[in-house]
Amino acid sequence: MHFRPVPAAVTFAVLTTALMVPVLGMLALGTGLGSDSGPALPAIRLWPCLVTASVAGVLCAWIWSLRAGESAARLFCASGAATYAFCLGAAVFSLPGPLTDPVVTAAIAVNVIGASAFGIVMIALFARYPSRLPGAQTITLAALLLFGAWTIAAFFGPVKILIEIHRITLAEMVVILALAAAQIVVARADPVARAIAIWLGAAVGIGAGGFIALVALPNAILRPALVPEEFGFLFFVIIYIALAIALVRYRIFGLGRWAFQLLFIVAAGLAVLAVDALIIVVLAMDAARATGIALLLVALAYLPARAWLWQKLIAPPRSDGSVLLREAAGVALAPTGPERERAWRDLLAESFDPLAIEPVAERYGEAVIDEEGRSLLVPGPDGFAALRLRDRNRGRRLFSPADLALARELGALVAQLGEARSAYDRGVAFERARIAQDIHDNIGAHLLTALHAPSNARKDELIRETIGDLRDVIRNAEDEPLALDALLADLRIETADRVELAGLELEWTMPELPDAPPPRETVRALRALLREAVSNVLRHAAASRIAITIAPDDGLLGLTIADDGTGFDPAVSCDGRGLGNMRRRIEGLGGSFALTSDPQGTRIVAGLPLQT
Q1: Are strands 545-553 and 505-509 parallel, antiparallel or unpaired?
Q2: Hey, how many other C-beta atoms are within 10 angstroms of the C-beta on 524?
Q3: Given 94, 233, 381, 605, which residue has the most CB atoms within 10 angstroms?
């Protein structure tokens, strides 16, 4: 016959109900319910006992429901049962009314056995969790024999059992703290175990240390406790919450920083209490003056020590904006793809100091923490392969949310700078192609024509045009913005030289023009049209005068070229003179072109766009 497993929620509900019934019963007795005097508020010392018992019991029920098959979880639950027992045993003494001798004896037995059992079980737990220490079984057996025998002897010894149990608890707590420190040392090669060990060590140091300093140690040396024993039980709540978190491993990659922050805060409070008590006892000073001196001494000694320890133990990730930008730029601006990818790996290695960096086949939208903080998955910006970083700080730390934010920030910077570099590369490639095209189409063609020109005059004309084209290529390559009037001034000088050498008169009319540089295609078309038209006049028109007028006209740059030559038939000669190509080029830019010719001369009127 096969039995279906009981759901975790049902197990938790049953255990919690069973544990809370005695607590609620004790609370009802604390109110005096059923007594002749009537109900009243429970004694204030009863509350810490019931709160601690409830927290320990509920957390143990929770862990048992989730992880009953794990040895560490079973030990945790056993320690919770022990805490539950000694808290309820102590709570009996805060109930109203007289207690019979059997009740007192039973309450003392439950309290003493529970307190001793708590220490023994915690020793067994810290000998095995988070890492199994060498000789864990021997440590557990020795604790059971030593503290078990000591507890039994305390019942029959000359010292009061409630005093002797504090000595037993003190010794157990010292062993627990030593085992917690040993766990941190042993787990130094395992970041997950080390994070848990640090977290538990801090929690136990606070919980056990607080109870020892305020209750167990003073009672063990026959001095009054600094706080009532029942209030000292509240320190055990810290231990149980920390143990529950560690066993479930909820966001374990962030526990290291939480542990140190919590440890430092509580350590400051304990330091003030300890120094205050020492001053009162040793110097016999009044409480107010002692507290003031204690605060001053702790501030002078503790705060610098805390800052130094924080810097040494919890080194925050680098977040200086200028440093990140410089390092990301070194990746994005490396000359080649392989060099950029290598620089990206080097940057991650320098930032996180992992034990290993491995390529990942899968693609990720953004960086994520994996394997409970042991690895960090980083997507590849700028087309790089995704990478898995293993074991932060050479295995001494887990990856934290701060590391995740740093990885995402680095990736975003490299991606943005990579996009800027790609845009720059595209611009460079376009400019190179433009220069090559200009050299091939204009300069190369003019020089080749000049090489085979039959007359020196024609050679000179072509060389002058080539120089103008070369000047335009240089200006565009340097991305030099050239105002329209400066551009036309260059064309006027070039045209005047050509016309003067041919013995013609030039009339150049140019009113005030817009300052904004015209589009590049307009500049090219303007230069080509002016040169082609002047060349046709010089070669074919038999003219004595050329008139050129340039003026803005309704968003266009109006250009009129007129001569007093013999004219020609446009229907027959336009295409042969290259003006047909000019017409198509200008109209393709959104401009206009018109040509008229008769025996009194030729007139070209064109409009070129001033804006793209």
Answers
A1: parallel
A2: 18
A3: 233
